[in-house]
Amino acid sequence: MDAIMAARELGKAIQADQRYKDYVAAKEANDADEGLQELISAFSAKRQALSVEMQKPQEEQDAEEIRLMNTDMQNAYGEVMKNVNMANFAVVKNALDVLLNEVEMIIRMSCEGEDPDVCDPHASHGCSGSCATCGGCG
């Protein structure tokens, strides 16, 4: 089996993993949640408005308006993240990211000459398995 065929098999294995299935289900729940979609649209509009204001020449910018817009945008983001579907999505997305980071680290370690059957992406780099406190791999 060549590397491309192995990558395709790896893709199939990832899609068969429960973390991937949970991610897909959470994404579908987000897409179906009309209230969440409205919150996301409101957040996006606020972010866009802030971006337009910040792209103005410095002398045309209103610092107080930018501060208020930024606060409003942060509040809108908070509302998005309070949504139960979005909160669940964040959890399952993190779990999938951990899996993908582990897979990537095994591939990198293998490319550096380590034995793919026994290399441990956690032990080799002091990884706790949680990406929340991670400063980056390798």
Walk me through this protein's architecture.
By secondary structure, this protein is mainly α. It has one domain (3-130): YheA-like fold (Up-down Bundle). 71% of the residues lie in helices and 0% in strands. Helix 3 runs antiparallel to helix 4. The protein is elongated. 7% of the residues are buried.
Radius of gyration: 21 Å
Helix content: over 70%
The CATH topology turns out to be YheA-like fold
**What is the string of SSEs from the N terminus onward?**
HHHHH
What is the CATH class name?
Answer: Mainly Alpha
Strand content: under 5%
Q: What is the number of domains? A: 1
Q: How many alpha or pi helices?
A: 5
**What class would the helix/strand composition place it in?**
mainly alpha
Shape: elongated
N-to-C span = 28 Å
Question: Tally of extended strands?
Answer: 0
Please state the average pLDDT score: 91
Q: Under the CATH scheme, which architecture would be assigned?
A: Up-down Bundle
Oligomer state equals single chain
